[in-house]
């Protein structure tokens, strides 16, 4: 692991400790911590293997929290997804709950922050709102609190969703003799509601036929 990565992790841990203790931490202090950790060396190979065996058999809340810390350094995480992953990897439920609660309390994990990133990513991929909502609900995230999901959306207003669906079909048109039906199926698979998929498929197909007519005419 590079020194830069060590410093980032050391700073993150220092900030977490500061939040939990109600004190402020500084970057120089965090760097000193990282430096001192790099200088520390085990006395022998036997102690290395002993420590490794102890770590592998330890499913304590502290080890679960360190796992969360590593995952959160890579990308935003959802608390429910973390619970499922940690239990799947062999951590006991009590340790998982304590570690996740700690991560939420210090801001290392934030479900709304994760949801915002997820929604923007899915929308940029052309995914439908219904599918995104289902994904968030599966993670126990309150959809009404996700601002990026409701931006430009009003209750009963599907115009923006239809426009996105048509744009998706124009970028990646379905290849089938029955283009309209194929377009509808494609949109349903992408998470669009049946009403939006039907309207978008119809409008896209009409535009396609008009374009083909102009070319032959």
UniProtKB/TrEMBL annotation:
Biased composition of type Basic and acidic residues is found at: 49-62
Give a GO biological-process term: regulation of DNA repair
Record-annotated RecX second three-helical domain positions: 110-144
Gene3D superfamilies of this UniProt entry?
Winged helix-like DNA-binding domain superfamily/Winged helix DNA-binding domain
What is the superkingdom listed in this entry's lineage? Bacteria
Localization per record: Cytoplasm
One Pfam match, by short name? Answer: RecX_HTH2
| One Gene Ontology cellular component annotation held by this UniProt entry | cytoplasm
- Where it mainly occurs, coarsely classed, is cytoplasm
Instruction: Give the region (Disordered) as residue ranges.
Output: 22-62
Instruction: Cite the entry's keywords alphabetically.
Output: Cytoplasm
Q: Which family does it belong to?
A: Belongs to the RecX family.
Q: What is this protein called?
A: Regulatory protein RecX
Which species is the source of this protein? Paraeggerthella hongkongensis
């Amino acid at each position: 692991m590079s020194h830069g990565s060590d410093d980032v992790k050391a700073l993150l841990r220092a900030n977490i400790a500061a939040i939990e203790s109600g004190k402020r931490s500084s970057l120089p202090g965090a760097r000193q911590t990282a430096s001192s950790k790099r200088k520390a060396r085990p006395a022998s190979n036997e102690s290395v293997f002993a420590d490794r065996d102890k770590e592998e058999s330890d499913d304590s809340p502290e080890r679960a929290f360190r796992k969360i810390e590593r995952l959160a350094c890579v990308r935003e995480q959802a608390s429910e997804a973390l619970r499922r992953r940690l239990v799947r990897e062999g951590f006991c439920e009590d340790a998982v709950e304590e570690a996740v609660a700690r991560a939420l309390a210090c801001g290392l994990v934030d479900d709304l922050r994760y949801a915002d990133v997820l929604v923007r990513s899915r929308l940029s991929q052309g995914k439908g709102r219904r599918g995104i909502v289902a994904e968030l609900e599966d993670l126990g995230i309150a959809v009404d609190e996700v601002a990026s999901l409701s931006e430009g959306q009003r209750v009963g207003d599907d115009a923006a969703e239809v426009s996105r669906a048509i744009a998706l079909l124009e970028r990646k048109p379905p290849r089938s003799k029955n283009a309209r039906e194929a377009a509808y199926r494609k949109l349903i698979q992408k998470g669009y509601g049946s009403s939006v998929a039907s309207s978008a498929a119809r409008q896209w197909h009409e535009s396609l036929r008009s374009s083909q007519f102009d070319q032959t005419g």
